[in-house]
Specification:
single chain, 239 residues, alpha/beta, binds adenosine-5'-triphosphate, ATP-binding, ATP hydrolysis activity, ABC_branched_ATPase_LivF/BraG
Length: 239
């Protein structure tokens, strides 16, 4: 049984059908990527999984339970946590206060465990420790992205949803973020990743799905898709 299963998911924005019966699976312990052009439905898929966008039809199963109609905050408590596209850092709050926001849906049983997690996140992102008292709005784009990922980790997700973590970042920072995602996965968190940087995402993914206009058109191990001629031409800029 996969950790997460989407079966024939249809999602509408009013009269517009953004997902037309999308099915996919995420196996526990893996990094799984969604690759696709603008408007293919990647963000909508993430929203359906986190519960901020209702399904018109279809089913979502998490750890064997049907969560199709479960409210978003309950999904966080179950272990599904999203670091949203556009980062969503609170600009007027400090780095530490932003991290605390990640604990609301899932409080730590003790202060010691809270401290341990903050230490862990500062270990992943030393820049955040250096700037822990600084306001979120004063951080660079890359640091804000690190903070958004750190905040999501504060909820101790089983499944971490990352929507375009490299958006707008310099190539060096992109590599750093992708490396950290691999590290988070090795620590035991399953990751579902949406990335424009198809090369970087596929090379680090156990499995990936190609989305076109609201449905899956191809899937396979990341490294296999990297060598697929059609994928190369459409997403890797190689003819
Ligand atoms: P991007 O990389 O640009 O974020 P995406 O693959 O994440 O693209 P979605 O944002 O999921 O794609 O969009 C899927 C479809 O749904 C598109 O046709 C888009 O125009 C439409 N759509 C998305 N959000 C809305 C909205 N709030 N209202 C109406 N239509 C929407």
């Amino acid at each position: 049984m996969a950790m997460l299963e989407l079966h024939d998911v249809v999602v509408n924005y009013g009269a517009i059908e953004a997902l037309h019966g999308l099915s996919l699976q995420v196996e526990e312990g893996q990094v799984v990527s969604l690759i696709g052009a603008n408007g293919a439905g990647k963000t909508t898929t993430m929203r359906a999984i986190s519960g901020v966008r209702p399904l018109t039809s279809g089913k979502i199963i998490f750890e064997g339970a049907d969560i199709t109609r479960m409210p978003a905050h309950n999904r966080v408590a179950e272990g599904i946590c999203q670091s949203p596209e556009g980062r969503g850092v609170f600009p007027g709050m400090t780095v530490l206060e932003n991290l605390d926001m990640g604990t609301f849906a899932r409080k730590f049983p003790s202060k010691a465990q809270y401290n341990e997690m903050v230490e862990h996140i500062f270990g992943l992102f030393p820049r955040l420790e250096e700037r822990k008292g600084q306001k979120g709005g004063l951080l660079s784009g890359g640091e804000q992205q690190m903070l958004a990922i750190g905040r999501a980790l504060m909820a101790r997700p089983k499944l971490l949803l990352l929507d375009e973590p490299s958006l707008g970042l310099a190539p060096k920072i992109i590599q750093q973020i992708l490396q950290i995602i691999t590290g988070i996965n090795k620590d035991g968190t399953t990751v579902l990743l949406v990335e424009q940087n198809a090369q970087g995402a596929l090379s680090r993914s156990h499995f990936a799905y190609i989305l076109e206009t609201g449905a899956v058109t191809k899937s396979g191990p990341g490294k296999q898709l990297l060598t697929d001629p059609a994928v190369k031409e459409a997403y890797l800029g190689v003819a």
